[in-house]
Amino acid sequence: MESVGRLAGGIAHDFNNMLQAILGHAELALNQVDPFHLIHADLIEIHHAAERSANLTRQLLAFASKQTIAPKLLDLNQIVEGTLKMLGRLIGEEIEPVWIPGKDLWLVYIDPSQIDQISANLCVNARDAISGTGKITIETGNAIFDDNYCEQHYGYIPGEYVLLSVSDNGCGMDQKTIAHVFEPFFTTKGFGKGTGLGMSTVYGIVKQNNGFINVYSEPGKGTTIKIYLPRFKKESEPIQVGTPKVGLTRGRETILLVEDDQAILKMTEKMLKQLGYQILTAQTPKEAINIAQKYTNNIHLLITDVVMPDMSGPELTERLLTIFPNIKVLFMSGYTANVIAHQGVLDEGVHFIQKPF
Ligand code: ADP
Ligand code: MG
Known about the structure:
The protein is of the alpha/beta class. It folds into three domains: 2-63; 76-230, Histidine kinase-like ATPase, C-terminal domain (Heat Shock Protein 90, 2-Layer Sandwich); 254-354, Response regulator (Rossmann fold), CATH 3.40.50. It contains ten helices and 14 strands. A five-stranded mixed sheet has the order 2-4-5-7-6. Strands 9-8-10-11-14 form a five-stranded parallel sheet, with helices on both faces. Strands 1-3 form a two-stranded antiparallel ribbon. Strand 8 (254-258), helix 8 (262-274) and strand 9 form a beta-alpha-beta unit. Helix 1 (2-32) runs antiparallel to helix 2 (38-63) and helix 4 runs antiparallel to helix 7. The protein binds adenosine-5'-diphosphate (ADP) and magnesium ion.
């Protein structure tokens, strides 16, 4: 697991930088081309392919439990309810979704996008297991396992958990399939159909959040996947942060953009300029400090890469705060570096955007 994690992280960093350039330039080009022009369709294809690739690196990082996450205090019922529409579209009209929310559900501390990834992957698998009509049941509930119970039930870890369960009445799995189900790239769906990354993604996410998974399945009898996430317990509860959905806004503020990859620097500059911002660019932290020292107006926001040759993003931030005490900071990276996150969990108050964006 550790080696795969290192491998995934290594690939993800460089790969996400390149994908950032591909996606960004495709988008910039799309803005300049008439939708009826032949090139428009080609650009859309490039964009799709890059998005699919980005999804692949995201899944690899997930399997390695190395996604950058911003956990929030959540009611799973609320999150699942919010995704039911999307799940309905995924499973199609032949299959009946059944939603059984648990009562007085305990809270969990997890990144909501990871719940989306889990439920989407499990529902797609359930859909694929059903030929024709069928039923997919999503259930939540509280669960306590004591030492006694765990000694008698293989695969359980003592503690208090919130359960998320997805069941289907599809084809089920034999013992051999169950034994391999969490391995990355393990699939029974044939070439070009399955990627074999769904269950490994779920596994990595659950592990990153200190939970565990159980699989119940028999050929012809359907499948139930049970995910147990630790109950959130702490006296001082973190403030619940909502996720306001805002449309594309424009700005006039000044942004200092720091990125050692020149292609990405140029492209991001272009994009932000199109949105109306004043942009100062620097390819190294030293250059950024120089610019800041000479700049006579206010700089409102620093957008900076995290890992750079001579100084890290957080170190640069500290230096700039001495010049502009009110500057806001957004970190960008293709891969979480420990300087802003621990085990992938972002440090309190850190703002981060994952490349490619
Ligand atoms: P993929 O769906 O791309 O094949 P996954 O990692 O999501 O990859 O699943 C791996 C394999 O596990 C599947 O190919 C399938 O054989 C089996 N599987 C997973 N979920 C189910 C399910 N609900 N019912 C039957 N088989 C399943
Ligand atoms: Mg799958």
